[in-house]
Amino acid sequence: MSQPMRICIYGAGSIGCYLGAHLSQVPDVAVTMVARGATLAALRERGILLQGKQGDRVFPVAATSDPASLPPQDVVFITLKAHQVEESLPGIAALLGPETAVVPPTTGIPYWYFHGLAGPHQGRQLERLDPGGRQWATLRPERAIGCTYWVGTDTTGPAAVHQAGPAGFPIGEPDGSSSPRLRRLHEAMTAAGLRAPIRADIRGEIWAKMINSLVWNPLATLTLAPLDAIARSPDVIAIARRCMEEAEAVATALGATLPTTSQQRIDVTMSMTGHRMSMLQDLERGRQLEYGILRDSIVAMREIAGLGTPTIDAMLALVALRAEMAGVAA
Length: 330
What we know:
Blueprint: E1 5-10, H1 14-23, E2 29-34, H2 37-45, E3 48-52, E4 55-59, E5 62-64, E6 73-78, H3 85-93, E7 96-103, H4 134-139, E8 146-147, E9 150-157, E10 160-168, E11 171-172, H5 180-191, H6 202-223, H7 227-231, H8 234-253, H9 262-270, H10 278-284, H11 292-305, H12 310-326
Parallel strand pairs: 1-2, 1-6, 2-5, 3-10, 6-7
Antiparallel strand pairs: 3-4, 8-11, 9-10
Helix pairs in contact: 6-8, 6-10, 6-12, 8-11
């Protein structure tokens, strides 16, 4: 009998719980959540509560606060906020065996971005995004599998998640190959009911997701508006479009090809009636805002590309002041 595929979800926020709930249903996958506090207690007592169009469903799942108590994993999904990753590196390192794959956050540009990318920047490290190269040294770029989390979720309580709209999780190797580990992960995610197409150019997906976060999260935070309210304001949509054009120019200059047009992404985002972006949710709940990784990502990449992003810069300056005044600055 073959050994189950060991998958650790490091971080039990809305995305982590969404992934954990689905993957826990696959018979030959052993899922463990790493969590703490009230979330850990809820995972142990009840499991993950998913709320959506299909009603409320509960998914029992293993959970721990001590990653060192677990054996080496086949895959580690890091579903933390970007500013939480560095302090969690020792715990993540305890889960890594010789063949462990790591799926890092892709709210912004990941530490491994230039690993396996042919061209003048191949192997380039990004000091602004990974100070001192700590993620590069601990997680190692060759472990990385790219994944973008296209799902609208809202935490309604400890280990309780509400989903709004469709979900997708494109995955890909940095070098574009269809490796055995990538195919195995694709099969596990597909069996879990997660749409996880394999992409030969995962960087284009990462740019599309980052630009989505870079535009809609700050706009929602500044206006305090759900997406359908933003959709009713042509002037705000025009600002969003200018920001997208600036970021897409940087992506294109660095050789990335986005999988969809800006209009397609605007249309999809604006169809999520009533959804409140994650940064706005954090503002309303007094949590630290995750804008630093967005700012640092676009600055790091535009400097390499030699381009400016004046509209984005102005928007992020306003978000930084909003966060400071609310006491939730990054």
